[in-house]
Amino acid sequence: MAKATYEIVEHNGGFAYRVGDVYSETFATHRAAHEAAESAAQRQQLGGSDEQILYQDEDGRWREEFAPGDQRPDAGVDDRLPADNEARDARGRILDEDEVPNPDRAPLGDLNHTKPR
To answer: Where along the chain is composition biased (Basic and acidic residues) (predicted)?
Structure first.
């Protein structure tokens, strides 16, 4: 049986989970990335319907194959980061997800630095 491992890593100034060399979106907190990885791993194990799938292999070639819906990978989370590895304020308090700027989003405000004519 195939194995899918969701590894928790520091990424883009925050935290993400990674499967192979593919990263999730960036989460502001370690806890949020871990919870998202746990959820993804659980969903990975849900059965589905048989499908024809199209994917790009590691050499960049497109492949098509039949994927039986009842053959799901064994999925789990590998989190080797210290449990207290979280975003903190200047006093050391762990910040909640909504208190930390999201590094994947553009800042609010005028992104056009030139004035219209």
So the answer is: 58-95
pLDDT digits (tens, 9 = 90+) for 3-45: 889 999 998 878 999 998 889 998 888 989 999 999 999 888 7
| Count of C-beta atoms within a 10 Å radius of residue 14 | 21
Burial profile 74-107: b = 16 or more Cβ within 10 angstroms, e = fewer: ebbbebebeeebbbeeeeeeeeeeeebebeeeee
pTM of the model: 0.60
What pLDDT, on the 0 to 100 scale, is given for residue 51? 79
